């Protein structure tokens, strides 16, 4: 399994003046669930696209430093070669539907056909991906007839079928209703448990806190911090970086309730419950 | 003048065999009201009816004593404004100020009047300094604010938002929350379709839960969000603070972290 | 279903036939009567196409196609019937309008040709999944990109129509009139079309990236999930069709020589 290594990554979009990423360095171990947070324009989506080689290979622009997936330097390989190692899912499920297939089953096959897999291998992988995302029952539906949450899960299944070791999700639930988001989060969690490295950008801090092993805080193209959710959300300067901590952390902070052992504020419902239990009602 | 909408036994269907709205009775006045519910519950259809973009199959909507079906969409636009989900669906002018002046001039304001209203609206969303900029040179969250200003400048008595917080960060949500409260304090009727329950709990006076084309719950957010089982059946969640209180077994329902912290400190 | 594809799965004999076979039928149905150069050949093939459409349960779908082209044909019949150079024999007198035999026969020839071509095309597209057709082409070396554009249009246009509706709603909500006199419509054009263009550009870019990360530009040779089954029946039909074309070529050559 591949380790991700980012060294002094700098990037500027064509026809712009400011650096979208300004000297970012970190490592991600195989199988980690990483949450990326920060205000709009802080470089989150740019970083996501840098993992997949879309930056700089699709967008061009000025690029410095490097992104390594295992031994591969992202910049040196084509996007279609890398897509078998790193998959990416975007915000808008509609725009990820190819529009050239009439059923969910065929839609998932799209990427596999491009890779030239045998029919037998395709069927094995599609069946498996449908199962993992819990959408087997929609296999014969028209992709455009699905709900947002179902469509987004189909998009993830289409990526999973390509067997990547790493999946990047760029605000995958922001266009979905609560039920749809929950379906997507549960599905992603299952993939994470199977050992796939997950990197997710998300504005719902409660979800990030609940699912991530580590959280990366970005601001103005720089990495401010990269640590456990408890450490990140206990920072005093989060609001200055444009991030509101989870409700549970705000309550812990408001009442001065920390975890006695670690000295950190609670970040999830369960942690908050533990910290508050015993306080008089 | 204050806006008051009376909805009487409202039914709507696109096709004969599938009814989208199955008899809605509501009076909307004087409050900021959030309409929540799963996708497909009929929320969007409902607000389209309020804007006259669709006509009811039966029942009626009365705005300040006038049946909406006797007004054209353009006439309704003077009184009831709506901010669509995606700002890209409406922006077409080359400068922010022209974009924001478009609506007011369509509903009959003079150029000077429109300009005054447009500048006021831009100030309210904090974009007055960017009035000469091309909207397409702005980021999506700023374009969203432009699309809000474009409706506020028309000075309608009722303002409807469709998912205003989608893809907004903390600063964006805070700004939109302030706009909602400001409008409400001006005596406007503010309605929104929204999935973000924490935002509803923070900024709205009333929550109406739609499910399967009918109203499932209606009341102040405290009442509505205390009904965990019913919300669950409608595939909705409680706000995070409410969930925590629920998990701790508290009788009382809290909506915001501040309320909760205040309450605990007071003990 | 939000697809404007003309194909509908009816589980008919023609649905199960290989797409190549139906393409060949279309070519043969157009070529054979043209080569033979006899109106009765046209009539025979038209009858055959109608028969095929009937057993495939899609005859009704040809009505809009035929009625639109029927109007065009009718004007041709009227104009040629009345004014064609060389008109001499009056066959029908309607008040001041005289219809001539020569012009009518000439336009009948055009009509038969047009209907024959249309029906042959209908046989192909109403009974064949567009993706089957395109995959067949790609296998023969046709560009996968062009193939993609061709199939995706059927699904992406309805999506664009929906965006268009939302945009119309958004602008009407700002007090803009979209219905009424020509002037009103002209005024409404810019506020409607600019957002459509902008949002299509955004959507297209996002979709291009989504395709890219699914290996759309991979240099490996593409494979296909759906197996192309060319049965013995398909092969026999193909041979018969080719034989028919060859026979009519021979007939034509014989006419020239003789």
UniProtKB/TrEMBL annotation, chain A:
Residues 4-245 form the ABC transporter domain. Pfam families: ABC_tran. Keywords: ATP-binding, Cell membrane, Membrane, Nucleotide-binding, Translocase, Transport. It is found in: Cell membrane. Gene3D superfamilies: P-loop containing nucleotide triphosphate hydrolases. SMART domains: AAA (SM00382). Its main location: membrane. It is a peripheral membrane protein. It comes from the Bacteria. InterPro entries: AAA+_ATPase, ABC_transporter-like_ATP-bd, ABC_transporter-like_CS, ABC_transpr_CbiO/EcfA_su, ECF_ABC_transporter_ATP-bd, P-loop_NTPase. GO terms for molecular function: ATP binding; ATP hydrolysis activity; ATPase-coupled transmembrane transporter activity. GO terms for cellular component: ATP-binding cassette (ABC) transporter complex. PANTHER family: ABC TRANSPORTER ATP-BINDING PROTEIN MA_1418-RELATED, HEAVY METAL TRANSPORTER. Belongs to the ABC transporter superfamily. This is Energy-coupling factor transport system ATP-binding protein. The lineage of its organism: Bacteria, Bacillati, Bacillota, Clostridia, Lachnospirales.
UniProtKB/TrEMBL annotation, chain B:
The keyword Membrane applies. InterPro entries: AAA+_ATPase, ABC_transporter-like_ATP-bd, ABC_transpr_CbiO/EcfA_su, ECF_ABC_transporter_ATP-bd, P-loop_NTPase. It is a peripheral membrane protein. Its main location: membrane. One of its GO terms (molecular function) is ATP hydrolysis activity. Keywords: ATP-binding, Cell membrane, Membrane, Nucleotide-binding, Translocase, Transport. It is found in: Cell membrane. GO terms for cellular component: ATP-binding cassette (ABC) transporter complex. Residues 5-237 form the ABC transporter domain. It comes from the Bacteria. Belongs to the ABC transporter superfamily. This is Energy-coupling factor transport system ATP-binding protein. It comes from Hespellia stercorisuis DSM 15480.
From TrEMBL, chain C:
InterPro entries: ABC/ECF_trnsptr_transmembrane, ECF_transporter_component. It is a multi-pass membrane protein. It holds the Pfam family CbiQ. It is found in: Membrane. Keywords: Cell membrane, Membrane, Transmembrane, Transmembrane helix. The chain crosses the membrane at residues 23-53, 65-83, 103-126, 236-253. The keyword Membrane applies. GO terms for cellular component: plasma membrane. This is Energy-coupling factor transport system permease protein. The lineage of its organism: Bacteria, Bacillati, Bacillota, Clostridia, Lachnospirales.
């Amino acid at each position: 399994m591949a380790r991700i290594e980012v060294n002094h990554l700098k990037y500027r979009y064509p026809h712009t003046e400011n650096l979208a990423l300004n000297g970012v360095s970190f490592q991600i171990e195989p199988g980690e669930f990483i949450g990326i947070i920060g205000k709009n324009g802080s470089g989150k989506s740019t970083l996501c696209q840098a993992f997949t080689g879309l930056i700089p290979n699709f967008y061009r622009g000025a690029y410095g430093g490097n992104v390594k997936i295992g031994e591969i330097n992202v910049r040196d390989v084509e996007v279609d070669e890398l897509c078998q190692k790193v998959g990416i899912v975007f915000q808008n499920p509609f725009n990820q539907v190819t529009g050239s297939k009439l059923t969910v089953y065929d839609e998932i096959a799209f990427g596999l056909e491009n890779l030239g897999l045998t029919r037998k291998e395709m069927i094995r992988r599609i069946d498996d991906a449908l199962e993992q995302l819990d959408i087997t029952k929609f296999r014969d539906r028209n992709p455009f007839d699905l709900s947002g949450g179902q469509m987004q899960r189909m998009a993830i299944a289409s990526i999973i079928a390509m067997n990547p070791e790493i999946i990047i999700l760029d605000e995958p639930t922001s266009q979905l209703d609560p039920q749809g988001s929950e379906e997507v989060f549960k599905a992603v969690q299952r993939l994470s448990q199977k050992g796939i490295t997950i990197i997710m950008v998300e504005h719902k801090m409660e979800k990030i806190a609940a699912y991530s092993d580590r959280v990366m805080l970005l601001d103005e193209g720089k990495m401010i911090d990269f640590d456990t959710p408890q450490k990140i959300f206990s920072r005093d300067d989060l609001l200055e970086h444009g991030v509101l901590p989870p409700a549970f952390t705000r309550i812990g902070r408001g009442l001065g309730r920390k975890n006695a052992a670690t000295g950190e504020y609670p970040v999830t419902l369960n942690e908050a419950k533990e910290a508050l239990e015993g306080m008089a009602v | 003048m204050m806006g008051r909408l009376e909805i009487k036994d409202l039914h709507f269907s696109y096709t004969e065999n599938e009814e989208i709205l199955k008899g809605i009775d509501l009076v909307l006045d004087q409050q900021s009201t959030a309409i929540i519910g799963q996708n497909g519950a009929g929320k969007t259809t409902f607000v389209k009816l309020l804007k006259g973009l669709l006509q009811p199959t039966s029942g009626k909507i009365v705005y300040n004593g006038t049946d909406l079906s006797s007004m054209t969409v353009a006439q309704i636009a003077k009184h009831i404004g709506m901010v669509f989900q995606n700002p890209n669906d409406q922006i077409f002018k080359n400068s922010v100020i022209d974009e924001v002046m478009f609506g007011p001039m369509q509903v009959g304001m003079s150029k000077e009047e429109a300009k005054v209203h447009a500048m006021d609206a831009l100030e309210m969303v904090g974009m007055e300094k960017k009035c000469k900029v091309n909207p397409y040179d702005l980021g999506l969250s700023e374009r969203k604010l432009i699309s809000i200003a474009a409706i506020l400048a028309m000075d309608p008595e009722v303002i409807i938002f469709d998912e205003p917080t989608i893809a907004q960060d903390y600063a964006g949500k805070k700004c939109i929350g302030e706009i909602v409260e400001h409008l409400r304090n001006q005596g406007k009727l503010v309605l929104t379709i929204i999935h973000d329950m924490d935002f509803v709990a923070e900024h709205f006076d009333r929550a109406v839960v739609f499910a399967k084309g009918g109203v499932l719950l209606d009341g102040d957010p405290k009442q509505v969000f205390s009904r965990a089982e019913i919300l669950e059946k409608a595939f909705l969640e409680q706000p995070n603070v409410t969930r925590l209180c629920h998990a701790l077994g508290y009788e009382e329902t809290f909506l915001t972290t501040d309320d909760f912290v205040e309450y605990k400190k007071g003990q | 279903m939000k697809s404007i594809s003309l194909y509908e799965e009816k589980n008919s004999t023609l649905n199960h036939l290989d797409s190549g076979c139906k393409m060949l039928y279309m070519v043969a149905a157009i070529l054979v009567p043209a080569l033979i150069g006899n109106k009765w050949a046209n009539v025979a093939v038209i009858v055959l196409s109608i028969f095929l459409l009937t057993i495939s349960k899609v005859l009704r779908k040809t009505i809009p196609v035929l009625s639109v082209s029927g109007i065009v044909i009718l004007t041709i019949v009227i104009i040629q019937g009345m004014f064609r150079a060389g008109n001499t024999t009056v066959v029908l007198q309607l008040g001041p309008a005289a219809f001539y035999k020569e012009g009518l026969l000439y336009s009948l020839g055009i009509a038969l040709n047009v209907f024959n071509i249309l029906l042959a095309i209908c046989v192909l597209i109403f009974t064949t999944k567009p993706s089957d057709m395109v995959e067949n082409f790609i296998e023969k070396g046709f560009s996968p990109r062009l193939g993609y554009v061709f199939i995706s249009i059927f699904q992406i246009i309805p999506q664009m129509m929906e965006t268009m509706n939302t945009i119309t709603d958004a602008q009407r909500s700002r007090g803009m009139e979209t219905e009424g006199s020509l002037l009103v419509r002209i005024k409404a054009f810019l506020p409607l079309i600019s957002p459509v263009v902008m949002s299509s550009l955004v959507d297209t870019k996002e979709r291009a990236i989504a395709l890219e990360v699914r290996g759309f530009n991979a240099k490996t040779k593409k494979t296909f999930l759906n197996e192309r089954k060319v049965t013995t029946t398909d092969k026999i039909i193909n041979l018969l069709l080719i034989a028919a074309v060859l026979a009519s070529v021979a007939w034509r050559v014989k006419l020239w020589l003789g």
